Amino acid sequence: MRNQLNMITPLSGAKQYDSSSVIKDGLVSLNGFYESTVPFSEAYKHYNKELEKNGWKFHMKQEEKDGTVSYYFKQGDFLATITFLDNYHFLFNLRWAMLGV
Length: 101
Hints:
This protein has one domain. It is built from 2 helices and 6 strands; from the N terminus they run αββαββββ. It has helices at 2-6, 40-53, and strands at 15-24, 27-35, 57-63, 69-75, 78-86, 89-97. A 6-stranded antiparallel beta sheet has the order 1-2-6-5-4-3.
């Protein structure tokens, strides 16, 4: 799964300020929290291009009442999510989950 993550070129100038992971039966989830010097529209364009270049397909967009916006991409059993926490902070998540577990 880290190979999948390494294939996606990070946004130039974005600084990772935190990370987390969950690894348990039937689920692997990797999170990176970033601060960017460009607005989320530019960050989204970058990750949309990178994901599509690596075979990911756009799945859906979700907007929350608190103003966060998440974009979901799928590739087989993998799900990538970019969640914009505000205009200059975002979370990039890569997840694999075995169905039925």
